[in-house]
Amino acid sequence: MTARPRPLAVALPALRRGAVPAAAVVLLLTTAQPATAAPNVPSIPMADGVPGIVEDSSPPVPLDTHDPDLRMVEGATLAPAKVLNIKSIVESDGGEERRQDTNSNVTFALQAEVLFGKDSSKLGGDARSRIDTIAAEIKKQNAEQVRVFGFTDDLGSSAHGLVLSKARANAVQRELATKLGATVAFQIRGYGEQYPIADNSTEDGRKKNRRVEVSFPRTDS
To answer: Could you give the dihedral angle defined by the CA atoms of residues 95, 200, 26 and 45, in that order, rounded to the nearest 10 degrees?
Structure first.
């Protein structure tokens, strides 16, 4: 299930992002996105429009633009060199669980339905076994900083969504802390209906937006 992304320093055409097939691994080449912040919270680096860990976009080696081996059309110039980020995404058949690996970051996204009851922040069912899997990967990566973010759909008031998403993020963080001990520092946020990843006009889309994301740095590159 784990991909081994590697940084690239080559010029490639832009790729459009598409839907992720179920139970499949998809490799996407993207560049780092500029950071923006959610209202009324400290500035948090963004990745793909959702709070995350900033990717390093600096080129790994200097590039000689006057190298005679670079055969270009007369008058053409090279664009600034940058590292393209290889992204590996693995998703369960029903979309309940999603793992995303980049060059420097691992993100797990769990839909709320597999963790909580309706409009609840109490862990239930097999939620703990799913969180155990995430804790095991955090230990494997020797991560010391972990981010736990909660999100909801746009049903109900935005104020209620903020409270519920934070409560759900807290519940997942507490369970992770029992597995990881005091060696890991957590950043916890509840964003409510902000940063949707699907269309809120359909139940399938709202289901994808009701989620908790856990992200941490990669060390096994």
So the answer is: -110
Q: Do 28 and 109 touch, CB atoms closer than 8 A?
A: no
- β-strands 145-151, 211-217 pairing: antiparallel
Cβ 63 vs Cβ 81: under 8 Å: yes
The CATH number of the domain holding residue 79 is: 3.30.1330.60
Separation of alpha carbons 90 and 74, rounded Å: 44
**pTM for this model (two decimals):** 0.67
Domain assignment present for 8? no
Q: Residue 19's Cα: distance from chain center in Å?
A: 15
The answer as to whether 16 is a domain residue is no
Residue 166 inside a domain? The answer is: yes
Q: Which domain holds residue 117?
A: 25-217
Domain count, the chain: 1
DSSP 157: -
Answer whether residue 7 is part of any domain. Answer: no
Residue 8 has pLDDT above 70, yes or no: no
Write the CB contacts of 164 (distance below 8 Å, at least 6 apart in sequence): 119, 121, 150, 152, 190, 192
pLDDT digits (tens, 9 = 90+) for 63-112: 676 777 777 777 777 777 776 677 888 988 778 999 999 988 999 999 99
